[in-house]
Structure formats: structure tokens, C-alpha cells
Design goal:
Radius of gyration of chain A: 20 Å
Structural class of chain A: mainly alpha
Radius of gyration of chain B: 28 Å
Number of strands of chain B: 19
Number of helices of chain B: 9
Largest sheet of chain A: none
Strand content of chain A: under 5%
Helix content of chain A: 55-70%
Largest sheet of chain B: 7 strands, mixed
Structural class of chain B: alpha+beta
Strand order of the largest sheet of chain B: 1-4-5-7-8-11-12
Number of helices of chain A: 9
Distance between the termini of chain B: 59 Å
Number of strands of chain A: 0
Distance between the termini of chain A: 55 Å
Oligomer: heterodimer
Number of domains of chain A: 2
Chain lengths: 190, 327
Amino acid sequence: MGWLRDIDRWFLSEVLPHAAAYRARAAHFCGRDEADDLVQEAYARVLDTQDFHAIQSPRGFVLTIVRNLALERLRRANVVRIDYLASLEALDVADPAPDAFMVSSGRSELRQLARIMESLPPQCGRVLHMRKIQGMAPGQIAEALSISLSTVEKHLAKGLALVTRARRDDNARPEVECPRIPAPTRRVST
Amino acid sequence: MPENSSPDTTRIDLIEIASGWLVGLDAGTADVRAFEAWRDADPRHAAAFAEVAGAWSDMGDMRLLEDTPSAPPLDAGSPQEGMDDAADHAPATRGSRRKVLRAGLAVGALALGAAGLTYRAAARESARTGVGENARVTSGSAMTVDLNTDSRIFWKDGDPLKLWLERGEIAIRLTAAHRLSLLTQGGTFHLMPGIYNARIRDASCELTVLEGGGTFGANGHGLRTGETALATAGKASVRDDGEDMARVTAWRSGTLVLNGESLDYALSEMNRYLEDKIVIGDPGLSRLRVGGTFATSNPAEFLQALRTSFAIRTRRDDTGSIVLTRS
């Protein structure tokens, strides 16, 4: 895709595959309602980084940003649980929800995508299928279905937005299923 | 960052807007400059666009999975004819793409089994172990990775191979003619064929070169056999462990080797393998020195040693933890 910049390609291959981990960490800090927003904010910061090539571990980098943004938000909030903040400091190393970090294998990701596509509104799904799976050009699709090119584009855009959002929701699911707080083994070390 | 956070509507709109741009660019109807101006206006726009582009590109990969038909009902002849009729609209690459598609359908039965493998070459794999478990994974003939307790890795084929150590400890065996980038939160190691042990410690990663060699980070700090590098935030300190190698690899035979370390340390090592942790109930005990070789699969032996050597009492509290106190 020629319209992607270097940083976008890097973002796609190095940052985005770990979306479930960011989402889980954000949810751990700020709750599920704010998690998506927090992750999007972290993405924005990452894509604003000038020297992205210098980032050694993009996943760790984003997790740290998520944590820092969460701390910022919690500090700004009127009610701050001091003990909670302290425990967040300690969380630098611990994974908040290890089970949520399963990045599924390629095959199951594709199956998940197939499932999402099957649940699209029929016209949307059909047009998307023709474009992405059968590899037909938008103009050819318009002709084959006797609809205008702009209608084809509307279906494609709607389908693509639905698929993107559904994938995000799927990323959130493991975290919902197994909320897990790190075992407080630290308490005994004093 | 915008002060007004009305996240839901903004976020949803951004995905829709980004989808609109992508589809327009794909169809050649969008104004590229206007798109770039939109994307540059706010990194949130760029993020939404990248996410949408990821979904778009992954949907293309689904051709590998043609066995799961989400295909809309198409009349047998007409769309094909339509495609041929409209060939003059299509870019030159379209024809070859269709050939690929047809070839794919022709070997559909084969592809059914092979699709996972084919795609795996491009995707990132992962493996994890729970507390007390271990596992072995291989990447073709190039690499074998043993995972110690409570560990998680991701890896990706290529040259070099890429391996992410997220948590825990692993032993890596890299065969001749392969190179590996080991990515950790502490920094990236570039490794030659050989045998390595890597362990996450807090925010750092400790890498021991049992055989082989490599470099660390962008400036290429060299690592030789017998050396251990502790990498933190992109910087490494290197030490030579010499004969201590056996301790580094002891976990692979299910043992923990202690050589006069404090009880604190001994417990933190042993607890890595235990769901029910052993905890110190009497602060005075933490400075005791412990030595010996213990099985990590069964703490009974270790506890027995503590009881007999130090007259320590053990009891389970109501959370299942094993509490140590003076008798």
C-alpha cells in the first residue's frame, strides 16, 4: 500500500499486533470504559515519535506509555487511591493480565476475521469480499452489481470500519474473560 | 492532547473517516494531498488510518483461507464475464492477481491444510508457560526455544529470525547459518548461531552466551562465549560468569542451584515455580544463607532442608501460601 509511510508500516508490524496487551494494561489501570481511549492516545503518541527506529522494544515502549498516561489520568482525578498508585509503580515489570496477552496465531486471526466478515450486513460483506478476496477493482464491482462507484466505496468504507471496530472488540475480550491482578508476593519481602 | 475527552464519538468517527480515506485512495478517487493534510493534522488520525489499513491488508490475506466461504452468492457466469469485460479498467497487475486466485482455488484442497503454515511464515507466533510449566517450541530447523516457568515469547520467521522475550526465561539454540534478533524490554541482542539463556529480571534482560556470540544494541557492543549481559533501557553491562554456567542452565534439568545466597533470594527463585508461594513470616530469617541443589518441581525437599538445617517451621496460611517462621 503506497499510501503508508515508513512509520505506519512499522506501526502495523511492530506495535499493532500487541493491541490486546495494551488494551489489557489500560483496562487494568483505568477500567474497561476508558481503556480504548487510553490506547488510542498512546498510539497517537507513538506515531508522533520522530525517531521511531530507535525504539528497541515497541511493545514495551507502548506499554510504558499506556502506564504513564494512566498515571497522569489518575493523578488528575480527584479521588486518588494512594495505595493503588504505589502498586502501579511496582507494576513496571509485572504483566497486569498475562492471560490476555495471547496473540493468536495467524490462522486463528484469519478465521476470526472471516467470522467478522460473515457477520457484516449482506451488501457490505459482498462488496468487501469481491474487492479483498476476489481481488476485483472497485470499478469492476460497480459494473458487476450495477451500482455506482461511489456506492461501492460507501459499502467498502462501512464494511472496513465495522471490521476494524470488531477486531478491536475481539482484542478486548480475553481481558474481560480473565481479569487477573498480579499476586501480591511483594508484601512478604519486608 | 485535547482537553475535551468525548472519546466515544471521536473515536468512532475517526475510524469511519479513515476507512473513507482508505477506500477512496484504493479506488483512486481520493485527493492524495487532502488525505495527507488530514493525516498530518493529528497523530490520532494517523493512528486510526494505520489501524484501518491493517484490517484492510489482513482481509487480503484471507485469500489464503478460501476454505471458509464468506463468499456472497454470485451468479456463476456473470461476475467472471464482468471481470473480463471490464479488464480495460483494471490495472495491469489485476490479471496476475486473478491467476493467483485461480491457482489458489485449483489447489484448494491442499491449501486447506497448508494455509496455516503458509500464513505462519508471515505472522507472529507466540508461546507461553504457566507457573511450574515448561515447554519447547521450534521454528523449523533454525531455532529451538525452551521456556522455563511463567514465560512468554513471540517469534517471527525471517532473516534474521525475530524473537521477543516478554516474560520469564528461555534457552535458545540457534543452528548454523541462522541469525536471530532477540528483542526485550532492556534492548535488542543480535545473535549468531549458538546456545543462549535469556531471562527477564525486573525491567532488564539478562543474556548469557553459553556458546556462540553476538552484539547488543545499535552500537554493537560485542558478546562472547561465557559472558552475561544485563541489558537495561538500551544499555548493557557485561560480566564474565566463567564456571558459573551450570547454574544458569540448571533449570533445564528441573533444578535450582543455590550457593550461599540469602533465603530471600532463594525463595524468590523457588517461588517462580510455585503457585502457592513460600513466604517469610519472620523478618529475621531473610538473611539466612542457603546452599544446595533442589528440585523445582517439588518444594517439599527444599522445605525439608530448611526445617532440618535451620529449625524453621512451615505452615500453610488460608490463602495457600507456605509461611516460614522460627520454631
